């Protein structure tokens, strides 16, 4: 709907386009409110329905892409491209958002270091001293013998 409004109103009717987006948002919020209050929808129900509809929408997208000529003749090709772009954004968020959140915690960095240098840890090597560039505090008695 937003892509159709962008094409139809464009730069000539910016106010109309913003009103359309506002009405779409208010409609979405009102439908969600009715579902939560009247129908007793819970957050877990919402999560389950999202998980159920993601593969279905992806399958419909693939079918639409496979029948590209038919979709172009019906005038639906631009909508399919917009929907595919939205799926790409959502999948990027779903995949990379947990990684971004986990990267903020310090224990993840320690865990990653432990995984990367597991063999060195098992031999008793202290990676933190190597990474920090510090020398070992215990003096070693290396005697140099002249040749």
Automatic annotation (TrEMBL):
Gene Ontology cellular component terms for the protein in this record: plasma membrane
Domain of life: Eukaryota
GO terms of molecular function: 1,3-beta-D-glucan synthase activity
Record flagged with keyword Aminoacyl-tRNA synthetase: no
Residue ranges of the TM segments: 20-43, 49-66, 86-107
EC number: 2.4.1.34
EC supergroup of this enzyme: transferase
Record key words, sorted: Glycosyltransferase, Membrane, Transferase, Transmembrane, Transmembrane helix
Protein name per the record: 1,3-beta-glucan synthase
């Amino acid at each position: 709907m937003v892509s159709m409004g962008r094409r139809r109103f464009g730069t000539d009717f910016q106010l109309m386009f913003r009103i359309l987006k506002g009405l779409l948002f208010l409609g979405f919020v009102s439908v969600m409110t009715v579902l939560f209050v009247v129908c007793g929808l819970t957050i877990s129900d919402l999560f389950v329905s999202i998980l159920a509809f993601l593969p279905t929408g992806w399958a419909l997208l693939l079918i639409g892409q496979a029948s590209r000529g038919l979709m172009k003749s019906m005038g639906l090709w631009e909508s399919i491209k917009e929907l595919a772009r939205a799926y790409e954004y959502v999948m990027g968020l779903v995949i990379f958002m947990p990684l971004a959140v986990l990267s903020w915690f310090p224990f993840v960095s320690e865990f990653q270091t432990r995984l990367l240098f597991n063999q060195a840890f098992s031999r008793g090597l202290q990676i933190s001293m190597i990474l920090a560039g510090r020398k070992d505090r215990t003096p070693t008695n290396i005697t140099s013998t002249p040749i």
